Inverse folding.
């Protein structure tokens, strides 16, 4: 009977250690809330604002062949449509004018949304101030990358 009490004690101790380890792991993995000063949700606010700016850029770029202000274009139905390929002769192949089109489009979107992203953060700061909170904005860097049917905007900013 004495050895069985020892076994039970060992199993209880192991169970407590296991439960403690699971709880510790769960608390370590928990992400911090996206809430900012004065209980204001920062991440959804910026995400919505930036997605509006990206959608504006895409709506301008799509009808124009992927450029905000195309340089080599023809006007068709009051829209400047960019040449992506230049044909120089009758039986000669077309010469690609934009071999890095995806990178060019990413840079155009980046240039278009940069002032709008700054405006988003400034309006966020004003909104937090109106709710008696405090928000200090640091340096910002961001990049735009594209995938099929998706545009990713990665913003890094100290707040």
């Amino acid at each position: 009977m004495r050895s069985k009490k020892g076994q039970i004690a060992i199993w209880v101790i192991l169970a407590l250690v296991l439960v403690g380890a699971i709880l510790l792991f769960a608390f370590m993995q928990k992400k911090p809330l996206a809430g900012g000063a004065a209980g204001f949700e920062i991440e959804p606010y910026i995400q919505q604002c930036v997605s509006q700016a990206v959608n504006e850029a895409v709506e301008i770029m799509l009808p124009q062949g992927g450029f905000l202000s195309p340089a080599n274009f023809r006007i068709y139905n009051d829209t400047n449509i960019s040449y992506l390929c230049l044909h120089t002769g009758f039986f000669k192949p077309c010469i690609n004018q934009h071999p890095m089109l995806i990178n060019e489009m990413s840079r155009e979107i980046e240039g278009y949304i940069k002032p709008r992203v700054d405006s988003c953060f400034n309006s966020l700061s004003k909104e937090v101030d109106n709710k008696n909170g405090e928000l200090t904005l640091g340096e910002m860097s961001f990049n735009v990358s594209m995938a099929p049917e998706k545009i990713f905007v990665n913003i890094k900013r100290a707040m």
In short: The chain has two domains: 1-30, 34-157.
